[in-house]
Amino acid sequence: MSDTSEPILLVEDNPSDVALTQRALQRACVANKLVVVEDGQEALDYLLGGGLYAGRDVSKLPALILLDLKLPKVDGLEVLRRIRANKNTRRLPVVILTSSKEEQDLAAGYDLGANSYVRKQVDFAQFDTAIKQLAAYWLALNEPPPKVRSQ
Amino acid sequence: MKSIATRFFLPFGIVAIVFSVFIFREIYVTSQHHANDLVGQQAAMAMEFNLAVREYVSETMHPVIRKIVGKEEFIPEMMSPMFVSQSVFEKVQKRFPGYIVRFISDKPRNPANQASPQELRVIDFFRRNPQVSQKTEQTQINGQRYVAQFKVRRVKTECLRCHGDPKDAPAALVKRYGTTAGFCRGVGDVAGLDTVAIPVETVALAMASEMGWKQIVMGMWLAFLFGLIIIVFHLVVSRRLQAMALHIREIASKSEITRITPLEAQEHDEIDVLGVAFDKLFEQLRVLHASLEQRVKERTTDLAQVNVGLKQEITERQRAEEALRQSEEKFRSIVESSPAAMHFYRLESEGRLVLTGTNPAAERIMDCEHRGLIGKTIEEVFPNLRDTEVLEIHRKVARGELGPQTFEMPYKDERVFGFYDMRVFRTGAGIIASIFVDITERKQAEQELRAYSHRLALATEAAVMGVWEWDVVTNAVTWDDRMFEMYGLVAAEPMTYQRWAEVIHAEDVILFERQLRRAVTERKAGYFNFRIIRTSDGVVRHIQAAASVIADEKGQVTNIVGVNFDITARKLAEEEIRKLNANLEQRVTDRTIQLAAANRELESFAYSVSHDLTAPLRGIDGWSLALLEDYHDKLDERARQHLSRIRTETQRMGQLIDDLLKLSRVTRAEMRPNPMDLTSLAENIARRLQEDSPQRKLEFTIQPGLTNEGDERLMRIALTNLLGNAVKFTSKQPTAQIEFGMTHVKDRPAYFVRDNGAGFDMAFAKKLFGAFQRMHKASEFPGTGIGLATVQRIIQRHGGRIWAEARVNQGATFYFTLNEAP
Fold first, then answer.
1. What is the pTM of this model?
2. Which of A33, A89, B164, B627 has the fewest Cβ atoms nearer than 10 Å?
C-alpha cells in the first residue's frame, strides 16, 4: 500500500475531465492529494524539477500518474518515453487514461512501458467505476515500486 | 642337389645314434640291477646278524642271568632279546645313518615299537599267508628309496613264559610293563616283524657316477670314428666327383668347342677310368656335330636361292592381278555410284542399238528394274523415242559419224515423265555410252522463280514497300521504282551507295552505315529505323528497313537485299501515344499522392474524433449526472427526466462515434491474409455470446471443417457482428436457433448465418448494408446501424459479396462469399 502523502499526478488538459476525475476520486474516498498539470511539458517540469517547478524536491514522486495522450506541447507518449528514460522516474506506475481506442495508441503505449491502459468512457457511471477501481488497485492492492536511490 | 655324402651319412648316422642309445640304456639298467642286488645282500646280512644277536640273548644270556637273579627278577638290559639287539644296532646306526633295523608289533610291550600303517599292512600279509616267513620290497621312507626286508616272528612255546599268562611271568616284568602289554599270546601267533631297511640312493648314486664317465668316453670314441669316416669319404670319392662335374659344366657352357682338355689321371681307380671314357665320348660327339653343321649350312643356302626366285614370281603376279582388280573396281564403283543414269549400247546389224549395261541411277530415274531390259533395243527401252532425232544422233555417234553429243530433251511414257540432260559418246568400235540426268526439278524451279518474281513485284507495289539491293563487292545499289518514289528521287539517274547516304538524315547516317557494315561482318541482318529528308519537298520521313544477307559458298557476304517502309504516320501516332501515356502516368502519380494525403487526413480525422469528440460528450454526461446527484432535491421530476434523456442521448452519440471509428478502422486496416479456421472462429464467438447473455437460451449449429484464406482479425469482427445480430434479433424467441455453415447458391459456394428471429421486410433489403440504416425501432432492438456496413466492408475486402434473405418474423439468412474469382 502506498503512502497517502504521495500525490496522484493527473496530466489532463480538459478542465471538465479534470473536474470529473476529481469528483470520481473524491467519491472513491482517495486520501492522496491530486496534482493536476495541463500539458506534457508541465508534467515533465513537475517530475524533473524544471520550468514552473524549478527547485521542487524531485525525490518526492507521485504514487501514480494518470496520463492523457492528446496533450498540448508535448504529447502523452513522449512524456511516457521520457519518464521511462529518466533514472529517477523510470519505475513510476503510469496509467494511460484516454478516450482513444486506436490500435496504434495501445501498441505505442505498451511498447513505451505503460503499466495500464484505461479508456475514458462517455458514460460517466462507467468512468466513475473505472477511476474507483484504478485507485483501489494502484493505491491499495499493488505494492509500489522501490524508490530509485539517488547517488 | 643331394650329394652322395649326404645320402650315405644320413642313414649311417641315424643307425649309429640309435645303436649308441640302446647300448647306453643297457649299461644303465644293468648298473641299477647291480645296485639293487648289493643293497639286498646288505639287508640280508643285517637281518641275519640281528637274528643271531637275539637268539644269543634268549637262548644263552637269559637262562644264565635268571639262575643268578631268580625267576621273579627281570633285567631287560641282559634278559630281553629285543632290548639287547636294539641297543647293538643303535651303535651301528651311528656309523651308517639312514640304515634301519628294528622290531615292530601291532601290540608291542614297548610303545616305541608300535607298527606304522605300512608295516601293519605287511603284518596283515603274513597273517593271511602263514607259510611265508620273509618278504623283500622296495619302499619309500621319508621320501627316500629303500630296500626293506621283513621277517615274521611267530610265538613259540618258550616265548609263553614272558608273553603268555601274566601270572607265569617274572614279577619284575609285570611290575615294569603292567599286565596287559605283550601278554596273552598263543603259539603260532604273529608277534611282530623284524625289519631291515637299507637306503638305495647312496649306492645308486655311486653307480650312476661310474656309468657317466663310461658313457662320455664311449661317446667321444664314436664321434671320432664317425668324423674319420666322413673325411676319408670326402677325400677319396666326393671331392673328385665334384671336380669332374665342374669340368664338364665348363665345357658345356663354352659356345665353340675346339678341344677337350682331359683330366689328368691320378689314382687310376674306377672314378678316373670313368673320366677318361667320358672325355673320349665327348671328342667323338664334337667331330660328329661339326660335320652335321656343315651339311645343314649347305642345304640352307640352296633353299634360300630357290625361295627368292619363287617370291619374285608371286609378287609380280599379285601386283598385276591387284592392278586389274582395282581398275575394274574403280570403273564399277564410278558407274554404280554415279548420280547420272548410264546406258551402254552396242551397234548391231541393221542399225539396231542393243542395251548391254546400265547402273542403279538409271533404274532410279526410269523407276524400273533393268535386268529384263538388257539385250533389248533402244526403241524397246524408250518406246516413245521411236523415229525421233534423238535415236538418229545415237546411231551417228555409234558409227563415228558424230563426236560426243549433249542435249536436253523432254520424255514421257507410261513410267517416266520429265526433262533429261543427255550426253552420248563413243567408247569403242560400235559401242556407246548414253548418260542422262533428271533435270525436271530444275526446270520446275526456274518456272516457279519466274512466277515468284512476278508475285513479289505485285506485293511490294501493293504494300508501298521499296525493294533495294546492295552489291557489297562492286558497291552498286539497285532500287525499284517504289524506292525512288519514297525518297522523292528521279529514277533516271543510276543509284549508288553514296547517293543513298546523302539523302539520309545527318543524325542517322552513322547508324545507317553501322547497320549495313554489321550485316556484312556478322553475316546477319535484321530491322533498323532511320530518317531521311525527302528530296522532292525536304520533309523528314521515318523509314523502317529490313535487310537480309546473301553470302557466297565461302560464307563471304556478297549482297544485301532488303525493303524500306515509310513509317512516318506510325511514328507520329506512337509519339502521340507516348505523350498521352506520360501524361496519364503523371496523373496516376498525382492521384496516388492525393489519395495517400486523403488517407492520412482520414487517419488524423479518426484519431481526432477518437480523442476529442468524446471528451465533451463525457462532460455532458458527467455533469448531467452531477446535477442529478448534487441537486436531486432541488430538481423536480420533469427536470430529472430531461437530464436522464440528455444522458441517454449523449451515450448514444458516444456509441455512434465508436461504431463509426470501427467502420473506418476496418476500411483503413492493412490486410494480412493467412489460412483461417472459420469453424473454430465461429465456435469461439458463439461461446463468448452465450457468456454475455447467460439468461438467453441459444442453440448454435456450426458446420465443422470450414476453412478459407483471409485476415482473421477482420473476419472475427465480421462474424461477431453477424452472429451478434442473430442473437440480438432472436431475443423475442424462447429458443434462439442460430446456424453457421456453407451451402451452394446458384451453384457457387456461399457461407451463411441463419436465425429464427425477427427477420425483416425484403423491400428494404437494399438499404441493409448502408451506414446508419436500421430495420427496427431502437426501442425494440438497440443499435447504431453500422454493424452490417462494417461486415460488408470486410467481406468486400476479402473479394466476396454479402446479401440477405428474410421475411418478417420468420428469421433471416445472411449469405457471404470469400475470395471469389473476379
1. 0.39
2. A33
Interval B197-205 mean pLDDT: 79
Q: What is the pLDDT of residue B666?
A: 79
- B611 grid coordinates: 480523442
Asked if residue B786 lies in contact with residue B771, where contact means CB atoms within 8 angstroms, the answer is yes
Residues written for chain B:
822
Considering CB atoms only, which of A70, A102, A127 is closest to B622?
A127
List the single residue in A with minimal CA-CA distance to B648: A123
B621 contacts A122? CB cut-off 8 A: yes
B560 to B465, B474, B563, B759: CA distances (angstroms): 16, 12, 10, 84
> Which residues in chain B touch residue A16, judged by CB atoms under 8 angstroms apart?
615-616, 618-619, 622-623
Decide the pairing of beta strands B100-104 and A116-119. Answer: unpaired
Nearest chain A residue to B617 by CA: give it. Answer: A122
Helix (H, G, I), strand (E, B) or coil at B537: coil
Quick one: closest CA in B to A17, which residue? B619
pLDDT of residue B412: 83
C-alpha cell of residue B4: 652322395
Find chain B residues with C-beta within 8 A of A121's C-beta.
618, 654
Cβ distance B224 to B191 under 8 Å? no
Expressed in angstroms, the distance from the first to the final Cα of chain B is 110
Helix, coil or strand: residue A90? coil
For the segment B281-305, the average pLDDT, to the nearest whole number, is 86
Say which residues have a Cβ less than 8 Å from residue B540's Cβ, sequence separation at least 6: B505, B531, B532, B533, B534, B568
Question: In the sheet where B431-438 sits, what is the strand order?
Answer: B353-358, B341-347, B431-438, B417-428, B405-412
Residue B115 main-chain phi, psi, to 5 deg: -75, 145
3-state secondary structure of B581: helix
Say how far apart CA B531 and CA B428 lie, in whole Å. 71
What single-letter amino acid sits at A64? L
Q: Nearest-CA neighbor of B787 among B736, B723, B738?
A: B723
**Average pLDDT of span B195-205:** 80
Cβ <8 Å between A122 and B606: no
Give CB contacts under 8 A, 24+ apart, made by B364-367: B365/B341, B365/B416, B365/B420, B365/B436, B365/B438, B366/B341, B366/B415, B366/B416, B367/B415, B367/B416
Q: What percent of chain B clears pLDDT 90, i.e. is strictly above it? A: 11
Cβ of A124 within 8 Å of Cβ of B612? The answer is: no
- Residue B290, classed as helix, strand or coil, is helix
Q: What are phi and psi of A117, to 5 degrees?
A: -135, 110
pLDDT over threshold 70, residue B602: yes
CB contact under 8 A, B611 and A16: no
Round to whole Å and give the CA distance between A72 and B504.
Answer: 73
Element (H, E) at B468: strand B465-471
d(CA B761, CA B804): 11
Cβ neighbours of B642 (radius 10 Å): 12
Give B-chain residues touching A70 at CB under 8 angstroms. 611-612
CA separation for the pair A131, B759 (Å, rounded): 41
Look at strands B557-566 and B465-471 and give their pairing. Answer: antiparallel
ipTM of this predicted complex?
0.80
Start-end of H helices in chain A: 15-27, 40-48, 76-85, 103-111, 124-135
Are residues B46 and B196 in contact, defined by beta-carbon separation less than 8 angstroms? yes
